[in-house]
């Protein structure tokens, strides 16, 4: 439709959409008739009775698809474009609605108090959009701009790449003790850290160029960008932007803001690297900072007095779009201050402060002998798990990992975070939920004739109440009863009908049971809300959040178990000791297993306990197929057995990830690069799944940690079993071979044999 006016586009799209609506109605009538749902089919037939004869031949020919492979997708595409064109055409009306809404709100007693933030904000809003009046939006392709600038996958990759690349500038040299040689040299302090900061900035530019260059090519190839000189308000989702930007100008501003956010992130990581000794503590510190920012961004309401911490936050800085998408003012002592200058002021002050602090702490001269004990060292020296240094291998490895490598502190911090998260959980069931629970207490168990009769009686009661309320409304409209009489008499019917929404869930479960009986299964009535939360029903992704948490902390705690011996060179001493190979390997592996079990308990127990303690455990012995999202499971597996199964699978997944981290650390021999590799393999796919990419749920580590997806199709389960069990054996064998130096010893034996011969 290039070259047409908005009015012409709207007319053609509306005509096309109307045709697709009729064709969709014909398809629905055909489908419903085949399923013997004649009542709804008749409804469609009556609604489109006059139009169906004109399009029945077109439907039968199938020559109505242009942009997709099925009718419903075609209708959705045309509908989306139609909405875009309509929004562009009605932009003046949108601006007028802002003025009208401001006038209404300023006259409201709730917002009309002069001197308050709300009053001042209402007065400023129309003035902010005044420069946009009279602008004409050109409806064009939006998908290209959206794909290029709003890809969560790109954001996740960037958030993980920047910390890892910045850590690589400092931590390998620091952990190998090279700074004691570098700092005393002529250019070993200011010039060195300035060069590293400059390198971090160049890396940010490179990462941004690679990621968004790739996005630009993909978006341009798949969708195109349309006219890049049109106003940005014509792009779907950006109509509320209060700035006069063209698409190209917006893209430039977007990239500059993104670069500032990347550089801020890199300086934050460099500062942590300068202040902390080990890669594991830097990784843990960065995870806590990003996790805290993410939690603030999600939990704080945009209208609350704490909205400053939602807006001035690493998450919107890195996403960028929330900053420019709409007109936002921050409450600064009851005065509205626009988000844009505050954001750029925050960038400037933060970048300057972090640059100065990083350089100062890097150049500070400290002596290891005179340095005061840090809090962690003080705690490690006071908190003794043993009265003396352990003499057994397992005790020694536990002491090294928990105390010297600060894993105990990391576990305590994680436990505090989990405890705080648990304290924030609230059980506030809605009225509908309470009614649904009451129904399930009555119906719990197998579907019987008596229960079917009970459901029939309840349905008749609702039908009579609805009919009575309808007649009452007719009497009121006819003037036969007054308002007071209507209010009193309707209350009786409304009290009955308030349970109708909960009853519809009960009916849905009854229909599901009847349908499953056709497949030789016998599901039970079960109060499924709590079980649904644990089995990711209804789009709940508690499993993904738990998977991310256990992976991140496991990477921090396990990466240094074997890598430290290689980075310090003590591995050569261990190999010549009596128990320095196989027994030491077993002790280290058991240490990792103990830490993994503690993390597993801390990760999964709070959610599991909260849900079961509030929603109850009734129905644990019912068939698992009673839950609609578990319909693929066989009849003989109970709900209890299912949960034992998935939590066992998750434990096995955590064990495989632990083995993977150990194998990588033995191969790379460096804790920093081990964490980088483990993050790329284990964490990134889960984070991408969290933002809606279901394709990554089926890859091995992710599907095992989620666990629920394994039982939604036999092929996924078989594939993961065939992959994960041999993988765990391989990782264990290769780790043992690598640590114990079997191949090295064999090579040296052959070398000595050749020399002697």
TrEMBL record:
The chain crosses the membrane at residues 193-223, 251-274, 281-300, 342-363, 407-425, 544-564, 585-605, 639-665, 672-696, 716-734. It comes from the Bacteria. One of its GO terms (molecular function) is ABC-type transporter activity. One of its GO terms (cellular component) is plasma membrane. Keywords: Membrane, Transmembrane, Transmembrane helix. Coiled coil: none annotated. This is ABC-2 family transporter. The lineage of its organism: Bacteria, Bacillati, Bacillota, Clostridia, Eubacteriales.
